[in-house]
Amino acid sequence: MHPMLNTAIKAARRAGNVINRASLDLGQLTIGVKQQNDFVTEVDRAAEATIIETLREVYPSHAILAEESGLSEQTSEFQWIIDPLDGTTNFIHGFPQYAISIALAHKGVLTQAVVYDPNRNELFTASKGGGAFLNDKRIRVSKCVKLEESLLGTGFPYRVFDHVDTYLAIFKEMTKRCAGVRRPGAASLDLAWVACGRIDGFWEFGLSPWDMAAGALLILEAGGLVSDLSGDGNYLQTGNIVGGTPKVFNQLLQVIQPHRTPALQA
Ligand code: IPD
Ligand code: CA
Ligand code: CA
Questions:
Q1: What whole-number distance in Å separates Cα of residue 176 and Cα of residue 150?
Q2: Mean pLDDT score of the chain
Q3: CATH for the stretch 3-139
């Protein structure tokens, strides 16, 4: 296993312990609001501090982009992209669908990925060119080829509503054409679940790099495809992502693209 992946796994498991301990007494949580429907707890911050400390012990010169503390000062070819608790709204409610997401980019290319679900003790990992794994077992995207037979994941707009009408038009068409749509509430885990074949495709708009980086590499290494809305690879920049089995991915883009507006192109 790549040593950088190994360190990321250690960091994710430590953060998982912090989150699991806190989940035993949700009544104790202090909940802060960053903006409408954007919550942060001391658990998000403690999990992030644990991850950064673990990475820093081994790689003090690497740059870090983390949801709660932002961009570190280091300039480095290596950048860790961290969501210490993806699915905070679920966590606060005791809805057991959230994860820790850690990715490493080298010269802007995603090379290592960890998504850890502390509720199920499921560890999703990938290294570029080395395949994707769930608890050390190789995973692949499902064999689904038809949108009509696919189970899809998505994320509804709930914080920023600029594109809500466009989203709903796409949702309407998608839900009529596929076997079912789910909104589990933690984007990194949604993407990991595409990678292991539990869902056949996923789309969401307005995400941040830390929501997508690890999950995107998992899908690619599991034989799936991911892109932004134009079909290019700039999803970390645009915040809009489409992913799935190769065939379902193409059909998702075909449904989405005619609905794009000038403000929502890629
Ligand atoms: C959120 C979750 C959610 C997605 C949001 C994200 P957070 O992350 O991934 O599924 O719909 O857009 O911001 O804020 O819980 O880390
Ligand atoms: Ca997130
Ligand atoms: Ca988060």
A1: 11
A2: 96
A3: 3.30.540.10
